[in-house]
Design goal:
The protein is an alpha+beta fold and 468 residues long. It has 2 domains: 157 residues, Methyltransferase, Cobalt-precorrin-4 Transmethylase, Domain 2 (2-Layer Sandwich), CATH 3.30.950; 257 residues, no CATH class. Strand 1, helix 3 and strand 2 form a beta-alpha-beta unit. The relative contact order is 0.13. The N terminus is likely disordered.
Length: 468
């Protein structure tokens, strides 16, 4: 029997769903260029602590946005909860955080603050710093004695990671280029309001079996890994999954096997909490070489029990240096906790969020472009495939309270395969025009739902800004 959730119930859920997505950041947390970890800060009583937070916010804003998790510290055993946990979270209210932003940042902007629980149930404040700024954000005042933040200084994120002032011409060029791109994106969005752009697809190569063979080998490897697990185990994706795979075609650069891990880490694209092709570094889940490729399976994390391995966080991926990538992931909708609503429950295999496919395929497309730039030189093309299974009986929903959907649009077809072939260099600028025709047949399975182009544009803007 098809179980659909009333829209009125979903409108009461955005905070919870947002916390689920933010909670991805607390699964094996590690600092990155777009994710900073801070100790418990006294933001009410200490000007020094306020300056520490302000510097992190300034650097992340100029980096393109990111997140600050408060209350964690790095030890020899990994990143754990910092000592001196406060009795309340009064020091981390949204008004207080934005008061600090208003005092230190020019131009000022709004940060959102979420209290998010980790897998053990401990709560941590996470500050979301938006990107998309059209000019560099500067510090409009100094911290106490100028020891942390200097007046009129501009801060960026640097490898380490750390927050510092740009020193080289390359660092300044990257910052200014990001601001110019944000202006360009705004201009392109305005143009899209007037006309609908069309990105011509590359002619399909005569021989296309290589990507199909790669996908088949990916499923074969995954089946070997999960065959010892119970049928209903999360890493086996018992309620369905989606697969993203692509092949890059062009002239490959010269590099050795030892260079591959660094190239893959540098190709990461992280706009939402749980990025595709995430390259972990923690022992037990780190990627490893297999049959000439690099392989990673998150469904065998020794730090988590089998019950803790849910479908949305048990990725399996493989990347071959020849330009082939394969990713398998369960539906995030299936990890939502079941909640009673009269006689209706929302649970596994019942929902399909309208935003997530745009985000996930958009991130994967940008990852393909990034990997192509690292592994290849000159013009490159990408054959891209997305396959969804376990769709039968799912209802199309939206967890965004500003979007209204007709009730009861259900898929009755269980799977679909989608394919496109584009120039890699066209992806960044033309991402909405590529994503829309690719995903439209998927959405049409839900009682002929017509995917609006503006929805794709809006969701990709949200994805890139991290405003979810």
């Amino acid at each position: 029997m098809v179980r659909c959730v009333p829209l009125s119930y979903l409108l009461d859920m955005p905070i919870e769903i947002s916390r689920e997505r933010l909670a991805d950041l607390l699964v094996d947390p590690r600092e990155d260029l777009d994710f900073e970890i801070k100790n418990w800060l006294d933001l009410k009583g200490s000007n020094h602590d306020r300056a520490i937070l302000a510097k992190a916010v300034l650097a992340l804003a100029n980096h393109g946005g990111g997140f600050i998790a408060l209350g964690l510290t790095e030890t020899h055993a990994g990143i754990v909860e910092a000592p001196e946990r406060p009795s309340t979270f009064d020091n981390y209210g949204q008004d207080l955080i934005n008061g600090i932003v208003q005092k230190y940042c020019d131009p000022p902007f709004h940060c959102s603050v979420h209290i998010v629980s980790d897998e053990a149930g401990a709560l941590f404040p996470i500050v979301h710093v938006p990107g998309g700024h059209r000019v560099p954000v500067r510090a409009c005042r100094a911290g106490p004695n100028g020891s942390v933040v200097q007046s009129d200084a501009i801060y960026i994120r640097k490898p380490g990671p750390r927050s510092e002032k740009p020193q080289t011409a390359l660092e300044w060029d990257e910052l200014l280029a990001r601001c110019l791109r944000n202006r360009r994106d705004e201009m392109l969005d305005q143009i899209r309001d007037l006309i609908t752009g069309v990105v011509p697809q590359v002619d399909e190569p005569v021989e296309t079996d290589s990507l199909e063979d790669w996908i088949a080998s990916g499923f074969e490897r995954w089946n070997r890994l999960v065959q010892r697990l119970p049928e209903d185990a999360g890493p086996r994706f018992p309620h369905g999954h989606y697969c993203i795979a692509y092949e890059i075609r062009g002239e490959r650069r010269q590099f050795g096997p030892a260079d591959v891990p660094a190239l893959l880490r540098a190709s990461a694209v992280r706009h939402t909490g749980w990025p595709p092709f995430w390259y972990p570094t923690r022992e037990g889940i780190e990627p490893y070489p297999m049959d000439g490729a690099v392989e990673c399976w998150l469904g065998n994390d020794p730090r988590r029990s089998l019950k803790e391995h849910d479908a949305a966080h048990s990725d399996f991926w493989r990347i071959h240096p020849e330009g082939l990538a394969f990713l398998l992931r369960g539906y995030q909708e299936d990890t939502m906790e079941e909640k009673p609503l009269g006689l209706t429950r929302i649970g596994p295999a019942t929902a399909f969020d309208i935003s997530l496919p745009v985000w996930r395929v958009g991130e994967a497309m940008l990852h393909a472009q990034s990997l192509a730039a690292k592994l290849f030189e000159g013009p490159t093309s990408i054959r891209f495939m997305a396959r969804y299974s376990g769709l039968d009986g799912r209802c199309l929903i939206s967890v965004d309270p500003s979007r209204s959907l007709p009730h009861g649009q259900v898929a009755r077809q269980n799977s679909i395969s989608l394919v496109t072939h584009v120039e890699a260099q066209a992806i960044d600028v033309n991402l909405p025009e590529i994503i829309h025709p690719l995903l439209a047949p998927l959405y049409a399975l839900f009682d002929f739902f017509d995917l609006p182009m503006q929805l794709v544009v809006d969701e990709l803007v949200r994805m890139r800004s991290g405003n979810f």
